[in-house]
Amino acid sequence: MAETIFDIDCRDCPRLAEFLDSVNARYPDYYCRPVPPFGDAKARLLVVGLAPGMHGANRSGRPFTGDHAGILLYRMLHRFGFATADESLSVDDGLELQDARITNAVKCLPPDNKPVGAEINTCNSYLANELQTLAPGSVVLALGGIAHRAIIKACGLRQADYKFGHATLHTLPEFRLLDSYHCSRYNTNTGRLTEEMFADVFAEARKLLDN
Ligand code: URA
């Protein structure tokens, strides 16, 4: 799948394809396919999450939509001028992203929210192709260490040269990479990622794009 950034028919990861089939049998109304990137095709802000959540993106078909992880993310996108509404409810709610797009390092729902290394690697060519569509001056926001490492791999760079750190800005050859802890329910409930911390990261992204 050389240049494509997304393939709704992809079944390259046997474990994930079988898992999607079994979840679909249990929840026939759920989307249960690889979840496409959402937002502006020409966006200068690309937010990279981990993988669809069972009752969120895997149900709705839109990244971070329908579960807890998306609440803070869409609120921030709206607050900093990247979204027309502060909530993402469903694929047909009319919400639009402005100069922003959301994608996942792994496009299919993984068991226990945990893709294995081989699955992250298999899905990596889609991410690599998507990163290549970015305009000069773009900012990529990695949500969590797995997304961060998937981005470094997709760029063919050495992990040891770019360590994940919350609110750390990395200057890569093709774009700026800004890291944040993932906005998961666990991280927000435990206070590892507070609303203020996340707002500071978005303020930085806004500043980088505006200057
Ligand atoms: N939903 C997504 O689409 N991605 C995540 O990383 C978490 C929830």
Question: What characteristics describe this protein?
Answer:
binds uracil, six-stranded mixed beta sheet, 211 residues
Outline:
The chain contains 7 helices and 6 strands, in the order H-E-E-H-H-E-H-E-H-E-E-H-H. With 211 residues, the protein is of the alpha/beta class. Helix 3 packs across helix 7 and helix 4 crosses helix 5.
Mind explaining what this structure looks like?
- With 211 residues, the chain is of the alpha/beta class.
- The chain has a single domain, classed as Uracil-DNA Glycosylase, subunit E (3-Layer(aba) Sandwich).
- Helix content is 36%, strand content 12%.
- It has 7 helices and 6 strands; from the N terminus they run αββααβαβαββαα.
- A 6-stranded mixed beta sheet has the order 1-3-2-4-6-5, with helices on both faces.
- Strand 5 and strand 6 (176-180) form a beta hairpin.
- Helix 3 crosses helix 7 and helix 4 packs across helix 5.
- It is globular and about 50 Å long.
General form? globular
Uncertain segments: none
List all distinct small molecules, including ions and cofactors, that are bound in this structure.
Answer: uracil
Proportion of residues in helical segments: 25-40%
The CATH architecture can be named as 3-Layer(aba) Sandwich
The CATH class turns out to be: Alpha Beta
CATH superfamily: Uracil-DNA glycosylase-like domain
Q: How are the strands ordered across the major sheet?
A: 1-3-2-4-6-5
Instruction: Count all strands and give the number.
Output: 6
What name is given to the CATH topology? Uracil-DNA Glycosylase, subunit E
Strand content: 5-15%
End-to-end separation: 36 Å
Number of helices: 7
What is the overall pLDDT average? Answer: 97
Instruction: Report the structural category.
Output: alpha/beta
Overall structural domain count: 1
Q: Over all CA atoms, what is the radius of gyration?
A: 16 Å
User: Can you write the helix and strand succession as a string?
Assistant: HEEHHEHEHEEHH
Biggest β-sheet strands, sense, barrel = 6 strands, mixed
